Fold these 2 entries.
Entry 1:
Amino acid sequence: MRVLARDVAQEFGCRFGRQPTVSRAPGRVNLIGEHTDYNDGFVMPAALEFATLVAAAPRPDRRIQVYSIIMGESRAFDLDAPAETGDWSDYLFGVAVMLERSGRRLSGADLVVSTDVPLGSGLSSSAALEVSSAHALLTASGLPFEPIAVAKICQKAENDYVGMRCGIMDQYVSACGVAGAALLIDCRTLESRNVPIASNLRLLVANSGVRHQHAGGEYNARREACEEGVRLLKPALGPIKALRDVTPQALEANRKLLPHLIYRRCRHIVTENARVLEAERALIAGDFAACGVAMNASHASMRDDFEITCPEVDFLAELAQATPGVFGSRMTGGGFGGCTVSLVEASAVKQVSQILIDGYRVGCGRDAEVFDCSPSDGAGLIPL
Ligand code: GLA
């Protein structure tokens, strides 16, 4: 991270000839609670050490100029005549537009952005770019960074500007993450509790290398199925607002009201909400085995009911689940590829990593990247 900070600051100096501030916002791994956020439910992500950095300094006009080190490309944008570009810069410009619409008057800014969050792997590279951009733009404008308000603005940018109807989880934990802990987020009230990750536990993330394609596709279709479920259950269950309001028992009692596919989509959500709370309880009690059971059940539910996994990710999760030293393993993130997260006994991390790398090569003929992750803090300035 120090290298990345030096790189963006140096690049900024070369391009713009001034001293920037450097904002940082992390990617995340979700321990459990998938697709529950937009159902007003519970999630339990942790912010990662992987992050996006934005070097920034204000301009006297209303232009935003940005150079991405990763893309090797520049883009420019006029705050008074915003236009979509259809590429990576929409995440940043969308955030600028939504910050202004929220009543925050921005000054123009010169920006340099870079990241070490693996892209398109379910570790929230998009949220990291959005939240770090928001932090940089606000800092350049002399405005405060209010983490939860900013998370909502960034979510809106992704919903309305990029067209991905994501929930609040990724932006929330990128803005509010706490080193050493996962966050239990209630996505209805937007309150969160810290769930400390014990020092003898590790979060092992394995990247299948299968890239997901979210925007406009299967992700939004899952969201529509959940909304359809709520519509169909309302006559029987009264004034429910979201699947958060439906217990597993109430769903079973009314399953005849739902087409089978919608029933299975809803079953994932209502059982997943229960599993998140169980995982929180188990982690706090030091009952890692019980947390692992909930994680494994979450994976099965995503595979069989919500149908958002893929063979490579199933392979990695099942291999980890069968490996000594692993308490539990599941796909993490929106789905259709990306990463698994395994809860691993600290002393077994090296061995488990090697088993995943070797097993994946033999079983799927592909290379997996494996990361031993520690929960980090959410967005902030990096001292230079
Ligand atoms: C993506 C979205 C989140 C959440 C997850 C699935 O990461 O951005 O809002 O819905 O998928 O849990």
Note: Residues 30, 34-35, 37-38, 124, 166-167, 169-170, 333-334 surround alpha-D-galactopyranose (CB under 6 Å).
Entry 2:
Amino acid sequence: MVPHHIAIVMDGNGRWATRRLLPRLAGHRQGMESLRRCIRACAERGVAVLTVFAFSSENWNRPAEEVSGLMDLLAGALTREVPQLVADGVRVHFVGAREGLSDKVRQGLAQAEQATAANSRLILNICFNYGGRWDIAQAAARLAQQGEAITEASLGRALALAHVPDPDLLIRTGGELRLSNFLLWQAAYTELYFCDTLWPDFDEAALDEALADYVRRERRFGRTSEQLAQGAQPEAV
Ligand code: IPE
Ligand code: IPE
Ligand code: MG
């Protein structure tokens, strides 16, 4: 079965460029191409939700030149790519802290969300200036402000990704075996898939390998294999 929701840590752009003696930003540009290809491939395969990690809360620690290059790349892509996203039936959601982003980037994000709001073939969540800890903290702060009790359900509803179910499959390219503060709450029962392929090289064949691996997993959600064989529904709760 094709996962309903795929999340991706798009890692390895810098190394892709460095290996070619190119500036890191060239890797990020190529990474954008890879994302375009991946969006199309996911839509074609019937994936309903794609959530990508584009810029983490911690990526502000990078050299100023790389950070501003990434901001420009995003702002440019948002205006350039919107017509194609609309044509492909992709609905864009920005997920992350808007504070700290320039007016230009903020406006671009809001416009892309607005322009694609009527689409429903694929939901694309772009995690930008996002961190899993930020998300949990902002959700808890909001509940506290409203005087609401903090439960798993209320917190889940206050999180930035409340509009989609938890990811079924999380892919990290680039060979690192860590989450780097991505989807800490939502990945509780997500199947994890790590590959060495650098993000700019992650093509349809690499995606299909991840999907084939996912199909072989047994999602038990705490139950036993025997219970599943007897027809228990493999659901989280
Ligand atoms: C991921 O690629 C993209 C962002 C973090 C914005 P990297 O830039 O982390 O690439 P490597 O890990 O240095 O190769
Ligand atoms: C994670 O990659 C963030 C994104 C892909 C946007 P990093 O390259 O920033 O992660 P670390 O620093 O290796 O953990
Ligand atoms: Mg990296």
Note: The longest strand covers residues 122-130.
